[in-house]
């Protein structure tokens, strides 16, 4: 019975091509997935990374110290990542949205800002895995 069905498939070119295409799609997907993760450390120089340095500096025994600048300088010298210092802009934008809500809507704005913060934390999993978030908030997770 199996031979009979295989012969019927091979003799009909449309069915044979369709079956080959259906078999080729998972092969293509798994091959591209494997290629993407084959050498994860080989191209770190093209990996975008963001750093925010808001170090104001301090004085220790009369000497000025800028440890934040030193850390950023050492990280850039290693050339292990492609550096993009844009996280500061993202955080300022979020703070401006919260400030806008509080300024324009007062107490309802505070409530909206808290909802926005909770949604943002749940959407990015925050510091918790999604399984630890209350079930009512799990529906907000993308």
UniProtKB/TrEMBL annotation:
Its main location: membrane. The chain crosses the membrane at residues 15-38, 81-104, 111-130. It is a multi-pass membrane protein. Keywords: Membrane, Transmembrane, Transmembrane helix. It is found in: Membrane. InterPro entries: Phage_infect_YhgE_N (IPR017500), T7SS_ABC-Transporter (IPR051328). The keyword Transmembrane applies. One of its GO terms (cellular component) is membrane. The keyword Transmembrane applies. NCBIfam families: pip_yhgE_Nterm. This is YhgE/Pip family protein. The lineage of its organism: Bacteria, Bacillati, Bacillota, Bacilli, Bacillales.
């Amino acid at each position: 019975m199996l031979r009979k069905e295989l012969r019927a498939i091979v003799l009909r070119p449309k069915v044979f091509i369709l079956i080959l295409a259906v078999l080729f799609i998972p092969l293509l997907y798994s091959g591209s997935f494997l290629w993407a993760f084959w050498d994860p450390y080989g191209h770190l120089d093209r990996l975008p990374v963001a750093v925010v340095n808001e170090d104001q500096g301090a004085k220790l025994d009369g000497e000025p110290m800028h440890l934040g600048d030193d850390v950023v300088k050492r990280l850039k010298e290693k050339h292990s990542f492609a550096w993009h210092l844009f996280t500061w802009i993202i955080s300022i934008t979020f703070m401006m949205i919260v400030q806008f809500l509080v300024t324009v809507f007062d107490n309802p704005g505070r409530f909206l800002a808290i909802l926005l913060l909770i949604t943002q934390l749940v959407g990015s999993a925050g510091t918790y895995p999604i399984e630890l978030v209350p079930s009512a908030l799990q529906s907000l997770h993308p």
